[in-house]
């Protein structure tokens, strides 16, 4: 079975495009983790404290 140079070139271009999308997704996730983690942690702390206050009132 012969492989076509055109098919190999198309596969290479598609692989590069998929790799580029993966790298962009990784950068977005890394940015969100870095900048959203303090908000997440403070939200968890506020939720825990408010839950303890509501439960402690009974």
Strand tally is 0
Query: What is the average per-residue confidence, as pLDDT, rounded to a whole number?
Result: 85
- What Rg do the Cα atoms give? 24 Å
How helical, in percent, are the residues?
over 70%
Strand residue percentage: under 5%
Helix-strand makeup class: mainly alpha
Distance between the termini: 77 Å
The backbone outline, from C-alpha atoms, is rod-shaped
Tally of helical segments: 1
Main pleated-sheet profile = none
User: Runs with pLDDT <50, length 5+?
Assistant: none
Q: Your description of this structure?
A:
The chain has one helix spanning 5-56. The mean pLDDT is 85. The protein is mainly α. The termini are far apart. Keywords: Membrane, Transmembrane, Transmembrane helix. The chain crosses the membrane at residues 35-55.
Annotation keywords:
rod-shaped, 58 residues, transmembrane, membrane, mainly alpha, 0% strand, transmembrane helix, single chain, 90% helix, 1 helix
Could you provide a short overview of the structure?
This protein has 58 residues and is mainly α. The protein has one helix at 5-56.
Secondary structure layout plus pairing:
Layout: H1 5-56
